[in-house]
């Protein structure tokens, strides 16, 4: 049950209604009753941080044209009774009649992490604690300029990351056999590109369509303190299922080459790919994930999901194919922050490797 207490126990976010602001006008225009914002309080407890408290808010902006996509501004802040803090500002915007999509994440945290060593089969009870201070800015820009006429669903774009991280293992005593990783502190700055074909009807809760995306990101000592590359192939498919249920299937392959920090190698993230574990619970130079999920709206602002996930890592492709799969079976509840945009907050329980229970809370779908 260790992962259950490791994760944020944020049930208050689902027990209490979200605050939602709307505007109303005496007209039949489709932009009437447009929801301006949504806010959710979050309370919890973990072994590393003790009591946690904070809030999350999302501000919505009207589309540029009728039937267009709404831009969003995500704001979140959490603190703990151990004087740890984390906060993020993340705008998601559409420009030029939705021809340009941008995602920006500005994030800071002073938090506690656990290091399980670099391997596919970690011991859940053998780990080293560390303090992590991180500040980063990530940007994804997508557009279909010049390609819409021959393939309207094809998009290309740029990726930027500016990341400064300091990790300290010295504040915690450890008597096991796990040694500290070599690559920890410093700037991890990179630039890259991604190519995609995206036919999804909605990026928050897709009910039909598919996404195929290739990303290639370059980190160089000319920009920061490390030189490595990150490649990934992301494939997702969505369809309607029985009883008005949505089915989602996902595949992700990652590869990292070069002198990468241990926390930037390929592996589990605990929120989207292989939920219910800590970030980098298992990791290596390559990783592979398979996911299947069934989602269903229930009543009012409530919905639910059940899912199955598999994941594994290895330092070489032969290792990746040979290594054992981690498996996870789970279910969760969802609360609609914006029904029109199909934007839900979710809280999920996972039965990891059919031995340990983990909990995850996040906004938007895992994939």
Overview of the structural elements:
By secondary structure, this protein is mainly β. The chain contains 3 helices and 20 strands. The strands form 2 sheets. The chain has an 18-stranded antiparallel sheet that branches. 31% of the residues are buried.
Q: Categorize the overall geometry.
A: globular
Order of helices and strands: HHEEEEEEEEEEEEEEEEEHEEE
How many β-strand runs?
Answer: 20
Structural class: mainly beta
Give the helix proportion (percent range): under 10%
Low-confidence stretches: 1-18, 22-31
* Overall mean pLDDT: 87
Rg is 21 Å
State the helix count: 3
Relative strand content: over 45%
State the distance separating the first and last CA atoms: 26 Å
Q: Main β-sheet, in a few words? A: 18 strands, antiparallel
Key phrases:
367 residues, mainly beta, 18-stranded antiparallel sheet, 3 helices, 57% strand
Report a brief summary of the structure.
With 367 residues, the chain is mostly beta strands.
Chain-wise SSE layout:
Blueprint: H1 2-6, H2 12-15, E1 19-22, E2 35-46, E3 50-61, E4 71-80, E5 85-95, E6 100-115, E7 128-143, E8 154-168, E9 186-187, E10 190-198, E11 209-219, E12 228-241, E13 245-258, E14 266-267, E15 283-284, E16 286-299, E17 302-314, H3 317-322, E18 326-338, E19 343-352, E20 356-363
């Amino acid at each position: 049950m260790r992962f259950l207490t490791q994760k944020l126990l944020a049930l208050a976010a689902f027990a209490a209604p979200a605050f939602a602001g709307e505007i109303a006008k005496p007209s039949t225009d489709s932009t009437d009753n447009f929801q301006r914002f949504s806010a959710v309080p979050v309370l919890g407890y973990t072994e590393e941080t003790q009591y946690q408290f904070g809030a999350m808010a999302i501000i919505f902006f009207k589309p540029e044209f009728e039937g267009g996509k709404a831009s969003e501004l995500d704001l979140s802040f959490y603190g703990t009774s151990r004087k740890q803090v984390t906060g993020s500002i993340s705008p998601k915007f559409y420009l030029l009649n939705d021809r340009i999509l941008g995602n920006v994440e500005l994030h800071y945290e002073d938090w506690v992490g656990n290091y399980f060593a670099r391997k596919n089969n970690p011991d859940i009870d053998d780990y080293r604690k560390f303090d992590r201070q991180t500040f980063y800015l990530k940007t994804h820009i997508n557009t279909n300029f010049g390609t819409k006429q021959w393939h309207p669903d094809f998009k290309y774009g740029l990726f930027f990351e500016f990341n400064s991280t300091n990790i300290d293992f010295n504040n915690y005593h450890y008597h096991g056999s796990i040694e500290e990783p070599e690559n920890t502190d410093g700037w991890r700055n990179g630039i890259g590109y991604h190519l995609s074909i995206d036919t999804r009807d909605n990026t928050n809760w897709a009910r039909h369509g598919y996404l195929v995306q290739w990303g290639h990101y370059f980190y160089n000592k000319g920009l920061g303190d490390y030189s490595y590359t990150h490649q990934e192939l992301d494939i997702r498919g969505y369809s309607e299922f029985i009883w008005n249920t949505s089915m989602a299937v996902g595949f992700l392959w990652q590869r990292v080459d070069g002198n990468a920090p241990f926390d930037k190698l390929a592996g589990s993230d605990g929120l989207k790919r292989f939920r219910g574990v800590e970030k980098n619970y298992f990791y290596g130079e390559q990783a592979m994930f398979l996911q299947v999920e069934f989602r269903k709206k229930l009543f009012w602002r409530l919905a639910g999901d059940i899912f199955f996930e598999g994941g594994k890592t290895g330092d070489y492709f032969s290792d990746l194919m040979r290594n054992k799969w981690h498996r996870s079976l789970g279910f969760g509840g969802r609360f609609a922050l914006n029904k029109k945009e199909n934007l839900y907050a979710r809280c999920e329980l996972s039965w990891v490797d059919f031995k340990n229970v983990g909990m995850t809370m996040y906004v938007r779908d895992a994939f």
